[in-house]
Amino acid sequence: RWQKIFMFPLWSKMAVFWNKMFLTIIVLLIVLFLDAVREVRKYSSVHVNEKAANVNSSAFDHIQMKLFRSQRNLYLSGFSLFLWLVLRRTVTLLTQLAKEMASHAALETQVNDATEAAKKYMAENERLQEALSGKGDSKKKESTDATEAKLKEEIEHLKAELQKTSNAFHKAKTEGAAVKKQSESLRREYDHLMKEFEQLQQRLNKAEDKKDL
C-alpha cells in the first residue's frame, strides 16, 4: 500500500525540491526559535527591572503581555521545529519499510522459482536413473552417467543458490520487522508529544483569555 502511494508521479516531481524545501523550513524555524529566545530574555530582564522600580501598572502590564507573547512564540517555534524533524524521520522510516516490503516480495518470488527448478531437475534425475537401470548398453550408460553427473552439479548449484536466497530472504524479513518496530515506537512518541502540545496550547489559550479579561 505504501509502495503504491509513494509511486505517484507527484512525489517524483516534488523529490527534486523536497530537500531544499526541508532545509529552508528548518532554517526558518531555527531563526524564529532563536528570535523567540532573544525576546524572552529581553522582556524577562525588563520585567524584573520594572517590577523592582515599582512603575505604573499599565506599563508593567504591557511588559507582561510582551513577555507572555514571546514565551508563546518560543513554545510554538520549538515544538514546530521538533515535530517537523519527527515528521521527516517518520517519512524516512515509511519509505524504508516500503522498500523492505518490496524486497521481501521479490526474494520470496525468487525462492519459489529456485524451488520449482530444483524439483524439476530432481524429477529428471529420477527418470534418468530409471532409464539407466532398464538398459544395458555401455555407451548409453556412459552418456547417462555424464548427464547424471551434470544434473547433480546443477542440482548442487541450485541448492546453493536456494540457500543463499533463503538467507537473504530471512535477513530482509528481520530488517523489515526492525524498521516496522521502530516506526511503531516513533508513532507512539509522536502521539504523546501531540497530546502534550495540545495541553500546552490549552494552557496558553487560558492564560491569554485571562490577560484579555
From TrEMBL:
Membrane topology: Multi-pass membrane protein
Bap31/Bap29 cytoplasmic coiled-coil domain boundaries: 153-212
GO cellular component entries: endoplasmic reticulum membrane
InterPro entries attached to this UniProt entry: BAP29/BAP31, BAP29/BAP31_N, Bap31/Bap29_C
Example of a GO biological process term: apoptotic process
Source superkingdom: Eukaryota
Membrane-spanning ranges: 74-91
Coiled-coil region: 104-210
The BAP29/BAP31 transmembrane domain, residue ranges: 1-106
Stored Gene3D superfamilies: 1.20.5.110
Annotated compartments: Endoplasmic reticulum membrane
Pfam families per record: Bap31 (PF05529), Bap31_Bap29_C (PF18035)
Keyword Membrane among UniProt keywords: yes
Protein keywords: Apoptosis, Coiled coil, Endoplasmic reticulum, ER-Golgi transport, Membrane, Protein transport, Transmembrane, Transmembrane helix, Transport
Entry similarity comment: Belongs to the BCAP29/BCAP31 family.
Function: May play a role in anterograde transport of membrane proteins from the endoplasmic reticulum to the Golgi.
Protein name, entry field: Endoplasmic reticulum transmembrane protein
Source organism of the structure: Melospiza melodia
Lineage: Eukaryota, Metazoa, Chordata, Craniata, Vertebrata
Gene: Bcap29
